[in-house]
Automatic annotation (TrEMBL):
Record keyword Nucleus present: no
Protein name as catalogued: DNA-binding anti-repressor SinI
One example GO MF annotation: protein dimerization activity
Record Pfam families: HTH_3, SinI
SUPFAM superfamilies xref list: lambda repressor-like DNA-binding domains, SinR repressor dimerisation domain-like
HTH cro/C1-type domain span: 7-62
A GO term from the CC aspect: cytosol
Keyword DNA-binding: yes
Source organism superkingdom: Bacteria
Residue span, Sin domain: 64-102
Length: 108
């Protein structure tokens, strides 16, 4: 899968039109279209950074041909982390909880 195909797939999953993605990323709609249609095969890193920010992925996901489902974070995990943050749990408290869980598991 090409960079353009990955961008199009991610854009569609987000429910974004070309215009919406272009406006949010601050890039030309025609340029995104040319990348998606593989007329432009070598987009700049600045373009990729802008697009990846809007699509909520890292640049590597756009350029790496070997993306696997195993590397993706499950949305349920993301929701749990978000809920923990919103409830006021600090990163340090969360790390302590994980360490405690590892300790408990190793002492069984």
């Amino acid at each position: 899968m090409t960079i353009g195909e990955r961008i199009r797939e991610l854009r569609m999953k987000k429910g974004l039109s070309l215009t919406e993605l272009a406006n949010r990323a601050g890039v030309a709609k025609s340029y995104i279209s040319s990348v998606e249609r593989q007329l432009q095969l070598n987009p700049s890193i600045q373009f990729l950074h802008k697009i990846s920010a809007v699509l909520d992925v890292n640049v590597e996901k756009l350029i790496n041909e070997n993306n696997s489902k195993e590397d993706e974070i499950d949305t349920e995990w993301l929701e749990l982390a978000k809920e923990a943050m919103e409830s006021g749990i600090s990163k340090e408290q969360f790390k302590q909880f994980l360490e405690f869980q590892k300790w408990q598991k190793s002492n069984k």
